[in-house]
Amino acid sequence: MKPSSSEDQPASGAGSPSRGPGGKRLGAGRKPVDIDLTNLEKLCALHCTDDELGAYYGVSARTIRKRRKDDPEFAAAESVGRAKGKISVRRRQMQLAEAGNPTMLIWLGKQWLGQREVTPVELTGVNGQPVQIALEVLDGILDQARKGKKTRRDR
After folding, report:
1. Cβ distance 46 to 89 under 8 Å?
2. How many domains would you assign to the chain?
3. Domain residues for 46?
4. CA-to-CA distance for 112 and 132, rounded, in angstroms?
């Protein structure tokens, strides 16, 4: 029988049948953290990030992302919580708008109604007279633009 050497033995924890990476032994590894889905929903309504959720439950943000991917109930609770949080924000925005808050009214008008602040630009010539441009000048500008050349001003 051949004497055993350190070369024949796998490194501790590196693929040995009794202690493989990731804990191949029965019962190895950290026990799953119990995450109450009702509490998770409430935290998600506050729009907590994965890092914040992980810190609250004592796990990494990676664990939160993995649980979301692997557990449909977890993902659903998180989704419902985030939707409730958005509704809460929207409710408060509407309360401010209905109370006459001008900043909120302007912001909501821009977001929902496509309203924009338009600043008119008015050009005047010498002594406040209208600017006069000859048609030949406009034709020249348009020709240069069509050819992709720079105008004198752009050089």
Report:
1. no
2. 1
3. 37-113
4. 41
- The three-class DSSP label of residue 124 is strand
DSSP state of 130: B
Asked if residue 12 belongs to a domain, the reply is: no
Answer for the pair 46, 85: CB distance below 8 angstroms, yes or no: yes
Confidence band of 56 (pLDDT split at 50, 70, 90): very high
pTM for the model: 0.56
Cα→Cα distances 98→45, 58, 75, 113, 150, Å: 23, 42, 35, 16, 52
**Cα(first)–Cα(last) distance of the chain, in Å?**
89
Taking residue 113's Cβ as centre, other Cβ atoms within 10 Å add up to 8
Is 8 contained in some domain? no
Alpha-helix residue ranges (DSSP H) falling in 16-155: 37-45, 50-57, 61-70, 72-98, 102-113, 135-147
With beta carbons less than 8 A apart as the criterion, state whether 57 and 14 touch.
Answer: no
